[in-house]
Amino acid sequence: MRRLLALLVFATFSPLLCAEEPVTIGVLSHRGDEATVAHWSKTAEYLGEQLPGFHFTIVPLDFDEVDPAVGSGSVDFILVNPAIYVNLEVRHRVSRIATMKNSWKGRPYNLFGGVLFARAERYDLNQLTDLRGATMMAVDETSLGGFMMALRELKIVGINAYRELGKISFGGTHDNVVMAVREGRVDVGTVRTDILERMQDEGRIKLSEFRIINAHEHTTIGEHENFPLVHSTTLYPEWPFSKVRHTPNSLATSVSVALARMPQDHPAAVAGNYAGWTIPLDYQPVHDLLRELQLPPYQHQERFTLIDVVVRYWGWIFGGVVLLLFMVVMTSWVLRLNRALKAAKTQLELQHALILDSVADGIYGVDTEGNATFVNQAMESLTGWRADELIGRNQHLLLHHTHADGSHFPSGECPVYHTFRDNQARYVDDDVFWHKDGHSIPVEYSSTPIRNARGEATGAVVVFRNISERRRAAEESRQHQNEMAHVARLSTMGEMASGIAHELNQPLSAISNYTRGCIRMLQSAEGITQVGQMVAAMEQVAGQAERAGEIIRQLRRFVRKEAPESDWVDIEELLRSLLKFVQPELRKARVKLDLKLESSLPTLWAHGIQLEQVLLNLIRNAIDAMQDNEGERLLRVHACQEGSAVVIEVSDNGHGISREVQDKLFTPFVTTKKQGMGLGLSISKGIIESHGGEMGLHSKSGVGTTFTITIPLRREGMTHE
Question: What is the pLDDT of residues 463-488, one digit of tens each?
């Protein structure tokens, strides 16, 4: 771990120390860090000379540090034994670019093996079969020459090392294993080839101190040359030099070429005790070894025989046989059920027909050509068409060919056709079907697609009902609402009677005074000479009479029952006329009016008298709300167009309305007035909603109240008339 931290620090600060790009080579430290650096530093220097602009550094790695270093991308190249390489190839997709040629006494070779050895005086340990019960030390579980090769040789002679040896321990380095055997701490050791010879050359041991177990002799490399080192196992390809996944291919190619060009006697090769590099060898023998030992990456692969299959999966096999017998029984049972299902299907079809015929709504099916496929009895009774007259014929041409106004209804616009064309359900709340005798039937209907197993529409089902009774009930309800609104207007007029009487009294008194003055002038001697004054007085009489007549006309228009049909309403004219009507109340209550009307307000398609009633109710409520104001009493009436709607606001600066009252203010019989009936706002809201609009309220206690009316425009009313 300390090495990895040092490597990360080096990778972080090396660009600040030199201009060369750092390249790290991780090397398996199988003989200790000092020996690894000593053997491979010259190789790093050689690569730096061959590739200007790059600085190569050797990073010694213990067996357990190799995989984390490659996985984290801490190294750019890796030099490890072939077994570790195979695992890195599978786990991290490293790829070999060269194979090392080892050297012994000037003789190059690119294979290596394992050596099993004991102390020379252990005459009882000669063959592999002699190792049962003996203690053994290896380098590491991931060391190919220092453990795995020996493990395979023991397995070949029928020895399970973990079960039949006395004890297996690991020394971490080859040198530690050799010294442990020499000192008698274990019976047997295993290291890679050339370790014993090199330690003897270094003066640390003598080969005569050890006995080679299962010694192989006269092993050839190729066809003529004998392998020069003692060994106990099969030989495998030497260590590969590999690039890590993140390393650029261009750099890997340059390194591969530089290694291939290294002379056998180059100082880097001499320092590393090798004889240069060759093209990457075939590492299939290493794959075979790992697979045979069931070691990573083949730890989960086993060779199964038929007996193994039976032993391991006997339960599944037994279950399969039982399942097969069960399927045979089930097949015969299903055949019997199939016959019963056919009979049940016939019965269900009869029940389906009975259910359809028991429904009061008309139901019929349509295919993708628009032809009727089935009908129920209610359909026949509602339309007058018999089932045999409808099925197979185009339903649109028989039932839906004409609009309610008598205009032609093209089949391409029919909602039923659209249903099975776009696979979407539809609901139409107001339309007409045509009876066989030619009269129209007001209906509402739904059209739902019939889908196959793939979700595609294969037709539609139409369910409809006659809404004549509903229409009559709606008309009666509308008339009842009009009557209630009329009563409310009469009640309002009763409340306004005093103000209206005062307003009429003024012009009538003026008429009386002017008329009496004219009479006195006519009776006087100078009457003939006062014609001009009498003409002026009579003009005043005429003006006051017109004023009284206008008041009476407005009164009659407001209290009469409105016509049942809507018409185009000039909202500006309606507001100005209405405000003239309430002017007496405004003066009496000392209320100041703030009227703002947007220029060129559009006309509305509406009931003019109903709108007057709503606005009058809101204005009179605002006047009443300001009765307790000691200061200014201000009524604001604003109207403007917002998008495709007209918005009218009626505001006051009165005492406001609490939140509790606001939540139920539009409920019938709820009022803030001591003698109010609580119907005005409820009726007003219903009138606005009948026009397709909305009525809102904004108020804070002690601040004031604003009622907002929003009425949508019809296309014809988008411009001012």
Answer: 888 888 777 876 766 665 666 566 55
